[in-house]
Amino acid sequence: MTPIARTRARAxxxxxxxxxxxxxxxxxxxxSGLADALTxxxxxxxxxxxxxxxxxxxxxxxxxLRDPPAPEALVDLLRQIIELPKPVIARVTGHVRAGGLGxxxxxxxxxASREATFAFTEVRIGVAPAxxxxxxxxxxxxxxxxRYYLTGERLDPAEAVRLGLLxxxxxxxxxxxxxxxDGLRRSSPQALAETKRLLTAKVLETFDRxxxxxxxxxxxxxxxxxxxxxxxxFLERRDAAWVV
Length: 244
Hints:
The chain is α/β, with parallel strands linked by helices. The protein has helices spanning 28-43, 71-83, 99-106, 133-136, 142-151, 157-163, 173-185, 189-222, 225-235, and strands at residues 4-9, 12-17, 49-54, 58-60, 88-92, 95-97, 109-113, 117-119, 154-155, 168-170.
C-alpha cells in the first residue's frame, strides 16, 4: 500500500503522508512515494498547485530510524519540491519533528493549526539537521533558529511564523488556506512557475553550493557512536548516556 494518499479538487492536488503507524516518518518508501507523486503533479497540466498534508496527529516525525532514506534521496526530494513548477503548500494539523521541518521549509507556503508543534530534535539523538539546512537556513531568522537548532526545544505555531517556518497559523487551517488556494486558481500557470523560480533562486544556490558537503556530514553523523547511542535511547524511551 502506498504511503501517499491523493485527492484533487478544482485543480489542486492534495498529497497526504499516510503512514500513521510510523507517525509519517521519512522512510525509504515514503520518500520514494512522495517523489513519484510530485513527479506526476509536475507533469499534469490540470494541476495548478499541490497541498502537502498528513493523516493522523503527526505531519512527520522526522527520519524513520528503522528504515531511513539515504541522505541523497532526501536532498533530491527537498529539491524536487522547490523546483516543482507549481506552488506547494504545506497544511499541518499535527506535530512536526526534525526532517519533517525540511519538508515544511521546502514548501512555498505553509499553514498550521494552533495545535501543531515543531522541534529540531536531531541534537538530542547525536546528529545534526544537516540536509534539511539546505532549505531551512535560507528561509528562517538566523538568531531565532540558533536556539531551536541547538536545544531541540519545542516551538509553537506563533513562534514558527516568527521564525519563518510558517506562513500563517489559525484555529481553522482550511479557512486560512481558502483565500490562498483561490488566489492560486486565479493565477496563470506560466506566471506561477516563473514567479516561483524568482522566489526559490537563492535557496537553490544553497543546494548547488552545499548539498554534497551536508550529505556527507549527515552520513558521517548517522554512522557515529553517539548517534547509535542516541537512536537506541530514543527507541528504548530513555535518556541518552550524555544527558546530565
